[in-house]
Amino acid sequence: MAVAVRGRFTCLDTRVGKVESGSSGTGGTGDDELARSKLAGARVARLATVSDDGRPHLVPVTFSLDGDRIVTAVDHKPKTTTHLRRLRNIHVNPNVCVLADHYDEDWTRLWWVRADGFATILEPGEERVPDLLAPLVAKYPQYTERVPEGPVILIEVTRYSSWSALAVPAGTE
């Protein structure tokens, strides 16, 4: 069975407050608040960074969205090293991208939201860290038992891009 997917593509550059939309068909959504809502509700996203020699790096992350700020942290989940490539990459190139998406066998329910921005790494002892971690701890019950103790990545979002096959109300994915 062939399924034709039609949707709408939207961009919002928060630095200038300008919305640019381009359609890839009909029946989609250009609502930036809906895009933010979908992103905020996603349980996992992918963080893309780029090394000093231009190599892309993509990792899944837990995160919280508060206004136009995304927070993710190095937590207690097992890792092969504490000298993480994402942190090294952000030190040399703070331009990052966060992508959340939803897949469904019913392709009319597909969507994705991308947030581009500039990342800053905060060390655990910095004064702002507990306040920044609060929404992350509230979102993930695992963090109430063990608050992330590693560096915090704070991303100031400068642009949102999103696509949805159909205008699906938030929370019904």
Q: What do you see in this structure?
A:
- This protein has 173 residues and is α+β, with helices and mostly antiparallel strands.
- The protein has a single domain, classed as Roll (Pnp Oxidase, Chain A).
- It contains 4 helices and 9 strands.
- Strands 1, 2, 3, 4, 5, 6, 7, 8 and 9 form a 9-stranded antiparallel sheet that branches.
- The protein is globular and about 45 Å long.
Tally of DSSP β-strands: 9
Could you tell me the strand content as a percent range? 35-45%
The radius of gyration over CA amounts to 17 Å
Outline the low-pLDDT stretches. 1-30
What is this structure, in a nutshell?
The chain is α+β, with helices and mostly antiparallel strands and 173 residues long.
Descriptors:
single chain, 173 residues, alpha+beta, Pnp Oxidase, Chain A, nine-stranded antiparallel β-sheet, globular, disordered N terminus
Summarize the topology.
Layout: E1 8-13, E2 18-23, H1 32-41, E3 45-50, E4 56-61, E5 64-66, E6 69-73, H2 85-92, E7 95-102, E8 111-122, H3 129-139, H4 141-145, E9 152-164
Antiparallel strand pairs: 1-2, 1-9, 3-4, 3-7, 5-6, 6-9, 7-8, 8-9
